[in-house]
Automatic annotation (TrEMBL), chains A, B:
<feature type="compositionally biased region" description="Basic residues">
    <location>
        <begin position="341"/>
        <end position="350"/>
    </location>
</feature>
<feature type="region of interest" description="Disordered">
    <location>
        <begin position="329"/>
        <end position="355"/>
    </location>
</feature>
<dbReference type="Pfam" id="PF17767">
    <property type="entry name" value="NAPRTase_N"/>
</dbReference>
<keyword id="KW-0436">Ligase</keyword>
<protein>
    <recommendedName>
        <fullName>Nicotinate phosphoribosyltransferase</fullName>
        <ecNumber>6.3.4.21</ecNumber>
    </recommendedName>
</protein>
<comment type="similarity">
    <text>Belongs to the NAPRTase family.</text>
</comment>
<dbReference type="InterPro" id="IPR041525">
    <property type="entry name" value="N/Namide_PRibTrfase"/>
</dbReference>
<feature type="compositionally biased region" description="Basic and acidic residues">
    <location>
        <begin position="329"/>
        <end position="340"/>
    </location>
</feature>
<keyword id="KW-0808">Transferase</keyword>
<dbReference type="InterPro" id="IPR040727">
    <property type="entry name" value="NAPRTase_N"/>
</dbReference>
<feature type="domain" description="Nicotinate phosphoribosyltransferase N-terminal">
    <location>
        <begin position="7"/>
        <end position="131"/>
    </location>
</feature>
<comment type="function">
    <text>Catalyzes the first step in the biosynthesis of NAD from nicotinic acid, the ATP-dependent synthesis of beta-nicotinate D-ribonucleotide from nicotinate and 5-phospho-D-ribose 1-phosphate.</text>
</comment>
<dbReference type="InterPro" id="IPR007229">
    <property type="entry name" value="Nic_PRibTrfase-Fam"/>
</dbReference>
<feature type="domain" description="Nicotinate/nicotinamide phosphoribosyltransferase">
    <location>
        <begin position="152"/>
        <end position="342"/>
    </location>
</feature>
<dbReference type="Pfam" id="PF04095">
    <property type="entry name" value="NAPRTase"/>
</dbReference>
<keyword id="KW-0597">Phosphoprotein</keyword>
<dbReference type="GO" id="GO:0004516">
    <property type="term" value="F:nicotinate phosphoribosyltransferase activity"/>
</dbReference>
Length: 428, 428
């Protein structure tokens, strides 16, 4: 696999480029803006995910011999355009919401400025990353809220594309998940990884006892034993018999996990395994997690619903041309609201720190800032170079944690509702 | 990015391996089976997607220094396991449904045989690929049916993870899509690519006329002009004025595309552009495509709904241990149906060629085959080597086309219903 991101691109970006190079408009200075017209049905906030990966993708957006040959052999573009692409390197400016920042409909998540030529070709890969990663981040944040401080492990790799899985694990961690099962996410992003055994391990052995003995011998008494292969009550009894009351945790992956967790807790306590934790998994989403709040559950394993965005697998962001040579432009379409002109945003807060409004405005006429208000876009790329000292994934994880605390309390409700704070557009 | 697929894996596959190497069960001969318990809500058939990519992923499942260092540094497994992984190379057998074959709940889509050690570690990446690719293939096939022979172009890259986009384009083509906008899919899989211009191109120019003139100069009169940036009627008039009646196509991306297509056809015919095609796009799914059957639409561009599986972004397949040393094994869980034992499948057909039943059985006791029945699993890997002469993507595309024709007519309905043919499990 090539490390170039250049062909992760819709063909029309390059045919537009070819026409624009021919007619001389390719070098007009433009601003493109990434935003979404709506949140997924009933969601109250969005979470910016993928900004860090976008910056990497822009750096790796280079046309080598392989990429150029593909375009030449299929006559996608003409010779002049191939020559232009050969030297391509983004040299413009990018500003945007850092990862972990909340967003709302109309929030200017990313602004890309440069010549039409250098900015238009980035559209597809920028949107792919932000649409996927923000969809997962938004779902993940709701799950973390629902878990209410309990440990929550991402284990959805098998239910999504193998590369989406790695990116999903990354933004799940951003959103506050404790760990991931995905080893590549551990390598690529330094995220903690976790995992012990599946039902296959028990089935492989001549008895559940032999399986537990083997696992404890290999991984220690602090391990998590999966107790629902045959009979949960017998499984728990056996688990404590084999590992002793020092057993780290038991995992229950099927059945009515709320009832089963209560029974398991009583049984574990009776057996003296009072510090043994109970982990539940199996088709959990944010609603199931919340429903287990009153139960003695110590941790959750979440798979399918996380990696599919819990009903909203894409954030539906768009990348729109909003300025040409400082002149605002917008499509005049029948049903889609479009606002021309470059934008920035401020979030206003009450004195208590509670957010009240997302104000979107032209950068040349910023609103007055109250003591608790703050600018949301930060410089990400200047003259083609990534800005120094950009936040780490850990920084962004803290950012989201703090941002969620600023939402009005209704904003954190899982039920369907309006966006937590309104977006106000100021005329320039 | 490493080309190794080894870490696209849940940690527990490797901790199970470590325990099993320690206790001596790692070398027991096992069979794992991939199947799904249900189709997405109301769907009548599934389409096998991703088998070809699975074979590649198995070949590239190797632990190099980078992968081993990650596991060692994080103490995921012990030294003995690291040594074993260093020499890992799958040496077993894989049989399965070829791509483009239909499947139903319980169909044994893939059977992996080998030692526990060598087969268990493949679980995550095999499921990631089949779950994603089959989800997209299933949605794509319904869209192609709905398009009823008209051209249909995949253009969803921006709405999904950048690597999922490439795989989605691949299986959309498998399912009968005409082309994709994704250039990397063109390079990697030789799929036809397409695309001309977006609204940004019109907005960049001083007038719509200048934009159209530029595009026609660069791409010829056979190009597709996007006519809905400002006013569709004026856009079409201008398009024919600029390109002449030889104009290849106009594209309409917003509004009530059915009504607009009718108006556009009348207008184009009036202008003498009788062979100019009409392409529509913008939030189309299989239902919207079907609803446009009576309208003068020549082609569809489909994005979001395709890459998100049109409401079913994962196929929910599982990879279950079904045999250990020729002994059937199964979890005895409270609510999930599990059938131990290795399986194969035959599809029975009437004399007319219409499919009537999916028969699932143990390979050692196959049912008698009628003249129109056929075995569904084919050998894919023998002793670790990919079988010679496996079908190409074009072959698989034809396979699906033929398979869909064999479905009872209700099976192709888009409305919610039962699976098109029943699955029958024969006791061994």
């Amino acid at each position: 696999m090539s490390s170039s991101t250049a062909l992760l691109t819709d063909q029309y970006e390059l045919t537009m480029l070819a026409s624009a190079l021919r007619d001389g408009t390719a070098h007009r200075q433009c601003a493109f803006e990434v935003f979404t017209r709506r949140l997924p049905h009933g969601r109250r906030y969005g979470v910016t995910g993928g900004t860090g990966r976008v910056l990497e993708a822009i750096e790796n957006f280079r046309f080598g011999e392989d990429e150029l040959a593909q375009l030449a052999d299929n006559r996608v573009v003409d010779e002049r355009t191939l020559e232009w692409l050969r030297d391509y390197r983004f040299s413009g400016q990018v500003d945007g919401y850092p990862e972990g920042e909340l967003f709302f409909p109309g929030s200017p998540l990313l602004t890309v400025r440069g010549s039409f030529a250098e900015a238009v070709v980035l559209e597809t890969v920028v949107l792919s990353i932000l649409n996927h990663d923000s969809a997962i981040a938004g779902a993940a944040a709701r799950m973390v809220s629902a878990a209410n401080g309990r440990r929550i492990i991402e284990m959805g790799s098998r239910r999504t594309h193998e590369e989406s899985a790695v990116s999903a694990a990354r933004v799940a961690y951003l959103a506050g998940f404790t760990a991931t099962s995905n080893l590549e996410a551990g390598r690529r992003y330094g995220i903690p990884t976790a995992g012990t055994a599946a039902h296959a391990f028990t089935l492989l052995h001549d008895s559940e006892r032999k399986a537990f003995e083997s696992q404890v011998a290999a991984l220690g008494t602090g391990t998590t034993l999966l107790v629902d292969t045959y009979d949960i009550t017998k499984g728990i009894e056996l688990a404590v018999e084999v590992a002793g009351p020092e057993l780290g945790a038991v995992r229950i992956d099927s059945g009515d996990v709320g009832v089963l967790a209560r029974q398991a807790r009583e049984q574990l306590d009776r057996l003296g395994a009072t510090s043994t934790r109970i982990v539940v998994s199996g088709d959990l989403d944010e609603y199931a997690i919340a429903a287990l709040r009153a139960e003695p559950v110590d941790g959750y394993g979440v798979g399918t619903s996380l990696v599919t965005g819990s009903g909203a697998p894409t954030a539906e962001m768009v990348y729109k041309l909003v300025e040409v040579e400082d002149r605002p432009v917008a499509k005049r379409s029948s049903h889609k609201e479009s606002r021309g002109g470059r934008k920035a945003a401020v979030r206003r807060h009450k004195e208590t720190g509670t957010a009240v409004e997302e104000v979107v405005f032209h950068p040349d006429s910023p609103p007055e800032l109250g003591p608790h208000d703050r600018h949301l876009q930060v410089p990400l790329i200047r003259d083609g170079q990534r800005v120094d000292g950009l936040p780490t994934l850990e920084d962004d994880r803290q950012r989201l944690r703090h941002a969620l605390v600023t939402l009005p309390w209704e904003g954190l409700k899982l039920s369907q509702g309006e966006q937590a704070i309104p977006t106000t557009f100021r005329q320039p």
